[in-house]
C-alpha cells in the first residue's frame, strides 16, 4: 500500500506520452480532484457565498433589530401592566380598608339597634306584666268587693226586720234634715 506522500511524488513522473486514460488509483486521484473542485468552488462560488452570507447577516441583523423593538414594546407593556397592578392594589387596599370600616360601622349599628330592640322588648314586657298585675288586682278587688257586698247584704237581710228598717230610715232622714239646716 502506498502512503499519501507517494501519490504526490508520482505526480511528476507521469508520462507525457499523449495517451488519455483514467487513473484508477483512488489515493492518487482523490486529493487532486478535491483540490480542483475546491478551487472551482472558491473561484466561482466566492460571490454567491459572499451574497448568501451577506443576506444571512442582514436577516440576522433585522431579526435582532425586530427582537429589540419587540423587547422594548414588551418592556413598555410590562411597565404599564405593573402601573395598572399598583393602581389596582391601591384600590383593593382602599376597598379593603373601607370595607372593614363599613363592616365595623354596620356591626356597631346592628349591635346598637339590637340593644334598642331588646330594651323596647324589655319595656313592653314590663308594661305587659304591670298591666296584667293591675288587671289581676282589679279582678281580685272586684270579687272581694262583690263577696263582701253579698255578705253584708246577706247579713243585713238576715238582721234587719221591718221595725229596725223603719228606725234606720227615720234616723237617716233625721241626719239629712239636720245637715240641711246646718247648710242653710
Automatic annotation (TrEMBL):
InterPro entries: ATP_synth_b/b'su_bac/chlpt
Membrane topology according to the record: Single-pass membrane protein
Membrane among keywords: yes
Membrane spanning stretches: 32-49
GO function term, MF aspect, one: proton-transporting ATP synthase activity, rotational mechanism
Function noted in UniProt: Component of the F(0) channel, it forms part of the peripheral stalk, linking F(1) to F(0).
Family per similarity comment: Belongs to the ATPase B chain family.
Other remarks on this protein: In plastids the F-type ATPase is also known as CF(1)CF(0).
Protein name per Swiss-Prot or TrEMBL: ATP synthase subunit b, chloroplastic
Source species: Dipentodon sinicus
Lineage, opening ranks: Eukaryota, Viridiplantae, Streptophyta, Embryophyta, Tracheophyta
